[in-house]
Amino acid sequence: MSRAIDGSKRKEHRKKILKQAKGYWGRRHSNFKTAKDAVAKALSYAYRDRRDRKADFRRIWIIRINAAVRPFGLSYSRFVDGLNKSGITINRKALSNLAIEDAAAFEAIVERAKSALGA
């Protein structure tokens, strides 16, 4: 069996890790041993936070909808209950955008939800 002399795979692997660690503080950007750990942790955080971002946006949409329905005398939970009872199926992202961009359309939806609650 032939013998590997230059260790090109090893060099490529180290180079790849150090390239990913570019901009890290202290030894973490230049020392392979510490860079390897830092990159592994950063990648796991990135994976986790890509999923967390979806929950963060949903939270923001709910806060915006709640703020938008308060002047109509409703809370968020009562508003969503009214939407369900009136048979309106619209997601929170769209409701949030409606509240910001098209107040008249949002008001019409709120009125339908209120009438469904009263019935």
Task: Report on the architecture of this protein.
- The protein has 119 residues and is mainly alpha-helical.
- The chain has one domain (8-118): Ribosomal protein L20, C-terminal domain (c-terminal domain of poly(a) binding protein).
- It has five helices and no strands.
In a few lines, what is going on in this structure?
The protein contains five helices and no strands. The protein has 119 residues and is mainly alpha-helical.
Q: What is the fold-level CATH name, i.e. the topology?
A: c-terminal domain of poly(a) binding protein
Coarse shape: rod-shaped
What ranges have pLDDT less than 50 throughout 5 or more consecutive residues?
A: none
CA(first)-CA(last) distance: 84 Å
Assigned CATH class: Mainly Alpha
Integer average pLDDT? 93
Strand content: under 5%
Number of domains: 1
Helix-strand makeup class: mainly alpha
Give the tally of β-strands. 0
